[in-house]
Design goal:
Length: about 230
């Protein structure tokens, strides 16, 4: 059973989907840019049947609040405030793409709060040519704030070098999942990420960027034993 809830944090209201064993260890799921918490439903409950799962709508997404300011650090701080609000002292954490960047920023900021960390299709971030939404895209209805998309893309295009340098501070047992195939993410940068994080291993699933939705069985086969270990 999935319960849809909200929590008011100091800067924003976050919506989240709660499921799993009430007495299980907490697992937090962070979606990609432009997605929402329900994106994880395809791999639940097989992903972590023993966990108490919290899938978040990050700020500017889904049913969570819209704000005047957006950025990866703000989303990281929201997740930390969420943990404090719900009294979650130590968690397992899974993040896809943008959510993976938020996850590893959290893991390097408060390493004592993260036990296991799964990073799906997120590279070590380096400067890249500026990216903009396709012409006319912002005229279409969306379950996210386009101002958030512009702000996050600008950060990813010109990332703070400290984010990459800080990966060495993570103490979480980490699994990095690469999609290879038709993924638009440079796979050598994902391999670099795995090298920079201590206690980390890399697994590749030929699925492209949307690994858990394109190949849910293979994703669960790789991730579930890691979360249960």
């Amino acid at each position: 059973m999935i319960n849809v809830r909200t929590v008011q944090l100091p800067e924003v209201m976050l919506a989240y989907r709660e499921s799993g064993r009430p007495d299980g260890p907490p697992l937090v799921l962070l979606h990609a840019l432009g997605e929402r918490a329900a994106d994880w439903d395809v791999v639940l409950p097989e992903l972590a049947p023993g966990h108490h799962v919290y899938a978040l709508d990050l700020r500017g997404h889904g049913d969570s609040g819209r704000t005047a300011a957006y950025g990866l650090e703000a989303m990281r701080d929201d997740v930390l405030a969420f943990l404090d609000a719900l009294g979650l002292a130590r968690i397992d954490l899974v993040g896809h793409s943008m959510g993976g960047a938020v996850a590893y920023l959290l893991a390097q900021a408060v390493p004592e709060r993260i036990d296991r960390l799964v990073l799906e299709e997120i590279p070590a971030l380096h400067p890249r040519p500026a990216s903009v939404p396709p012409e006319g895209a912002e005229d279409e209805p969306a379950h996210f704030d386009w101002a958030m998309v512009r702000a996050v893309k600008a950060q990813i295009d010109t990332p703070d070098p400290a984010w990459r340098e800080g990966l060495a501070r993570s103490t979480a047992r980490t699994l990095v999942v690469a999609g290879a195939g038709d993924s638009h993410v440079p796979q050598e940068r994902i391999a670099e990420l795995a090298r920079l994080i201590p206690d980390c291993r890399l697994v590749t699933i030929e699925a492209g960027h949307l690994v858990h939705s394109a190949r849910p069985r293979e994703f669960v086969a790789a991730v579930a034993p890691f979360l249960a270990s």
